[in-house]
Amino acid sequence: MNLEGKIALVTGASRGIGRAIAMELSAGGAFVIVNYNGSESAAAETVRAIETAGGQAEAWQCNVADYGACEQMINGVLEKYKHIDILVNNAGITRDNLLMKMSEAEFDAVIDTNLKGTFHTMRFVSRQMLKQRSGRIINLASVVGIVGNAGQTNYAASKAGVIGMTKTAAKELAARGITVNAIAPGFIETDMTDKLSEKIREQMNAQIPLGRFGKPEYVAKAAAFLASDDASYITGQVLNVDGGMVM
Ligand code: NAI
Question: Which residues form the Ketoreductase domain (predicted)?
Fold first, then answer.
């Protein structure tokens, strides 16, 4: 996987899947912008881990739900590093509740971060990638955006929206050699799934043909592949990394 000389921006890279993706892209030789919102010290830890492994990275604060802040971040990165070759939209949140109990605030928070956040960064990075006539965009969706999940109306809507935006951007940007793909993880061991009770975990495991939750590294390997030259003929696709849960 040769990503030497590439500048990669990974949103929400202070922990979990985002951190694993940042590490994997760096292992391939990319310089990684480790975006974070509130967790400065965790982002610094990601940067330290990359540097310890021999890579290069810089932490960059930005709330992806904020349109103007995303414009500033992308402009700032471009001023400093001149190009952005890989964008990974990983930042995401959950605010689970049953449909009839879900508040407007719970719905809006998830849409603002997961769906609008992905739109914001793609909006500003695409202009640069069109100029460069190259680029890779990888959006973190979820199997929940494909098959739905009780208690996650907001999250499922945001991830289904990410899939629709991915395909649309893929069509708009293909003529200039830019690929746009989504990864739909199943259940991956991170802070996001740590909250699940033992009973729910057992129920989930029963639905996974491979019989276990995934690790952030599995998702990171798929992201690095989609970011590489080896994936230059793949665009507009949704790659499930889910132990066979949805097929
Ligand atoms: P996590 O909760 O461990 O990490 C999410 C990261 O996003 C954190 O670093 C958080 O600070 C950051 N973030 C949240 N809001 C942000 C904002 N407004 N601006 C910038 N950064 C922000 O979650 P995890 O599990 O690593 O998930 C990463 C992505 O993968 C998310 O998009 C999630 O929806 C998706 N995913 C995760 C699955 C899982 O089983 N863990 C399954 C399917 C999808």
Answer: 6-186
Residue type, position 111, single letter: I
pTM above 0.85, yes or no: yes
With the most atoms of ligand 1 within 8 angstroms of its CB, the residue from 192, 200, 239 to mutate is 192
Q: Which of 36, 67, 81, 155 is catalytic?
A: 155
Q: How far is the centre of ligand 1, averaged over its atoms, from the C-alpha of 119 (Å)?
A: 16
**Any idea where the domains of the chain sit in the sequence?**
7-239
Picking from 85, 118, 100, the residue whose alpha carbon sits closest to that of residue 226 is 85
pLDDT digits (tens, 9 = 90+) for 48-94: 999 999 999 999 999 999 999 999 999 999 999 999 999 999 999 99
Q: What is the DSSP letter of 111?
A: I
Convert the pLDDT of each residue in 160-212 to its tens digit: 999 999 999 999 999 999 999 999 999 999 988 888 888 888 888 999 999 99
The residue whose CB lies within 8 Å of the most ligand 1 atoms, and thus the one to mutate among 87, 90, 238, is 90
* Residue 188 CA, closest ligand 1 atom number: 40
Atom 27 (ligand 1) nearest CA: 17
CA distance 105 to 15: 25
Residue 29 CB-half CA count within 13 A? 8
pLDDT, tens digit (0-9, with 9 covering 90-100), for 117-127: 999 999 999 99
